[in-house]
Structure formats: structure tokens, C-alpha cells
Amino acid sequence: MQSNFWQDLDRPILVLAPMAGYTESPFRRMIREIEPSVVLVSELISAEALRRKNEKTMRLVAFHKSEKKYFCIQIFGSKAESFLESAKVIEELGADGIDLNLGCPSPKIVNSGNGSALLRDPLSTTKLIESLVKSTKLPVSVKMRLGFYDDSDLIEVTKNFASAGIASLAIHGRTTKQKFEGNANWEKIYEVKENLKIPVIGNGDITTAEEAKEKLQNLDGIMIGRATFRNPWIFKQCREAFNGEKISEIPSLKEQLKFLSRQAKLSVEFKGEKWAMMEIRKHLAHFVRSIPGAAEYRDKLIKVSTLAEMEGVFKEIPIDKN
Ligand SMILES: Cc1cc2nc3c(=O)[nH]c(=O)nc-3n(C[C@H](O)[C@H](O)[C@H](O)COP(=O)(O)O)c2cc1C
User: Fold this and answer.
1) Cys-Cys crosslink for 267: which of 54, 98, 186, 276, Cβ 3.0 to 4.6 Å?
2) In ligand 1, which atom is closest to the CA atom of 172?
3) Which residue among 14, 16, 19, 203 is best mutated to probe the pocket of ligand 1, counting the most ligand atoms within 8 A of its Cβ?
4) pTM for this structure?
């Protein structure tokens, strides 16, 4: 019997968007600590590499037990065999769900027929989804764009995906061709929901809790990506907004720096200091942009190579001003 946690989640559903190179386990854990109801998703993982239990890939999919309930592993690929075999690995790993990437526009992924390239042949993709759904007891969700070139067949395609048995559908309101240009088109996502019974989650350009509330409309939930870099508290604020409560302020600079310290410490435990500090630099770079007076520390922060060095720069930031 297939499990389907998506049906049981509190509404509106909140999902942290998968973002390669950013939404690693330590960041996801921090997001979960701030707002326990957020569904977490791994960054995109090659189904073929996962099926072969490639060493680097196994490190990429590693997650902490606190991420469970609910944590999905997102896979990309184009071969049924890879999907089916990688699904078995995901079951062994104990994740709660499988998320299928039909949205990645990166030329490296698309040119090898993966990611959003699968939207160019919706019939074969529907068959792929159907065989994956039948092969696993885990719920299979899809994350897609509005279409590859345009959104003309979106309604028909998403109806077919739903008939193939997916448990939920997240849509980034842009086409592949658009990459990240223009604004996300949420009207199209609302239209999809009018035609589907499964949970539909909207994604694209949300920067505040107020916007999330405004954009929700008839949808079951919202997914947020880039805005979490500068404001990891956004999901807590969204939950407050959806509950009709007063939206809490972003914590003080002192608290924000504490957040970053903890994220860095979790990262060091997770992958060792050298790699952890290299990877935390991009989070630091995003973060300082939102901190008045901290921009001048950016150059130092994007070069830190030890935890102690990072803490040293934090001490230089005048926290009392904020
Ligand atoms: C750096 C970066 C990496 C991303 N990696 C993935 C990925 O691995 N899988 C995926 O489905 N989408 C990926 N995306 C797309 C996001 O999940 C999301 O759809 C997009 O950023 C729009 O949402 P936002 O406006 O809230 O950021 C990525 C986006 C960014 C900015």
C-alpha cells in the first residue's frame, strides 16, 4: 500500500524549494528548527548515480533524522531503469518521499535529456512516472515548470501526471526558456489546481509572508527558495500570516549571526571544516547583504576558511547598531 503524507499535512503546505549547492542537510535542519511544519527536499540528485550508490552522491543525499517527517529526495534522469532502481535506494535510506525533477533548465541537465527536457515529451514522461509510482511504496511528487517552450499544454500534461499517480505537484511559474527572467505566472498555477484533486503547490518569486498569503489563492501550499537565503525565518512568518496571527519580526542581528554560527557548526560536523567553510561562504554572502552595516564585512566573510575565522569576523560586526 502506497503511503501519502501529502494528504495529511496541515494546510497550507510549506515547502523549502530544492536548491543545488544551498539546501544541504545543515541548512534544511535550521529551516526545520525555525518552522517545524516545513517539508524538506534534497537538491537534485542523479538517479543513475544514486542507483549505482556513487560515493559522492551518497554523501549528497545524506540527511539527519530530524529532517524526517517529511523529507523527500529529488531525482533527475530520463531512464525508467534508473528511476526504479534509485527509488529502491531512496526507500533503503528511509526518506519519506521521492520528488521528480521536471524543472531544471540548466543546459548541462537539459542537453542530456533530463530535468525540464522531459516536458518536451509529456507522453513518455507520463509513462515513466507511472512505472515509478507503481514500483515504490513511497509517494512520488513532481516539481516542474509551466512548460518547456510555452505553457500551452500545461493543463493536459498535469492531468496526465495526476492520473499516473503522483501524490503532489509543485509548479515554478516560469517556462524553461524563461530560465529566471520575468515574473512567475501564478495565474497558470491556479488554473492547474482548478483541474486537479491532488495537492498543488505554487512556487516562484515569493519574498515575504504577506506575498505568500496573497499568492496562495486556491492552492494547497507554497514553496519558497531564494528568499530563504536572506530570511530563513520566512516560513515561520508565513505560518503566522496564514493563521491570521501577527507576523513576527526577523530576529536581531545578534540572533542572525547565532543562526549562521550554528549552521556552520552543523556543516562542519556534516562534511568537515574545509568543505563546510567553502560552502558556507555563499550563504554568508547572501546574508550580509540583508544586514545593514555588514556589507563591509562581506569581503572577509567570503574568504573564511575556518570556523574560528568566521567567528572572528562576526565579532567585528557592530551588533548594537541593529
Ligand atoms: C541556486 C539554485 C539552485 C536550484 N536548484 C534546484 C534543484 O536542485 N532542483 C529544483 O527542482 N529546483 C532548483 N532550483 C529552483 C528552485 O527550486 C525554485 O523553483 C526557484 O528558485 C524559484 O523559486 P524562488 O523564486 O522562491 O527562488 C534552484 C534554484 C536556485 C536559485
Assistant:
1) 276
2) 19
3) 19
4) 0.97
pLDDT in tens, 162-211: 999 999 999 999 999 999 999 999 999 999 999 999 999 999 999 999 99
Whether 45 contacts 74, CB under 8 Å: yes
Cell numbers linked to 269: 560536523
Ligand 1 interacting residues, C-beta cut-off 6 A: 17-22, 43-44, 74, 101, 103-104, 143, 172, 203-206, 224-227
The answer to whether the beta carbons of residues 218 and 194 sit under 8 Å apart is yes
| Average pLDDT rounded to a whole number, residues 264-289 | 92
113, 128, 200: which is closest to 164 by C-alpha?
128
* Helix, strand, or coil (residue 142): strand
Ligand 1 center to 83 CA (angstroms):
21
Pick the catalytic residue: 90, 104, 109, 184?
A: 104
104 catalytic, yes or no?
A: yes
Residue 296 corresponds to which cell in the numbers above? 563591509
CATH number of 5-242: 3.20.20.70
pLDDT of 298 reads 86
The ligand 1 atom at the shortest distance from the C-alpha of residue 223 is 26
Backbone angles phi, psi at 71, to 5 degrees: -135, 125
